[in-house]
Design brief:
Layout: H1 16-34, E1 42-46, E2 60-63, E3 72-76, H2 77-82, H3 87-106, H4 110-113
């Protein structure tokens, strides 16, 4: 008889990708309380960034709103996971990446977007 190791409501059954997406959503929710206009921004998680020879691997990116689409913020899961050792460290790095990309979209400094930026 085979079945799942843990029921779906137990965190054990969440994949690494799902857990990472939850970290991004937690960070976005924190920022949306201060910046309601972020409700119009599409936040995405991709596994890896497109390869650009000779350039450093980015942790995230942003694309301003276009005529037919919303602004987008992308967080790249694998580069962030590689640079963080624990879940807490990963959560801090994800939040920093989200804050930096939102700051770029809004034309502000990261400290203006989140006054606690860089203090954790």
């Amino acid at each position: 008889m085979r079945g799942p190791v843990a029921p779906p409501q137990v965190p054990l059954s969440a994949s690494r990708a799902d857990s990472f997406r939850d970290l991004v959503l937690d960070s976005v929710e924190r920022l949306e309380r201060r910046w309601p206009q972020l409700a119009d921004v599409e936040f995405m998680v991709l596994d890896v960034p497109p390869a650009v020879p000779g350039e450093a691997v980015p942790l995230g990116g942003s694309v301003p709103a276009e005529k037919n689409g919303a602004a987008r913020v992308v967080v790249y899961r694998r580069p962030v996971e590689i640079r963080s050792k624990s879940r807490d460290e990963r959560a801090l790095l994800v939040h920093e990446v989200v804050v930096e990309q939102v700051a770029e979209l809004l034309g502000l400094s990261p400290e203006s977007v989140d006054p606690r930026y860089g203090q954790d």
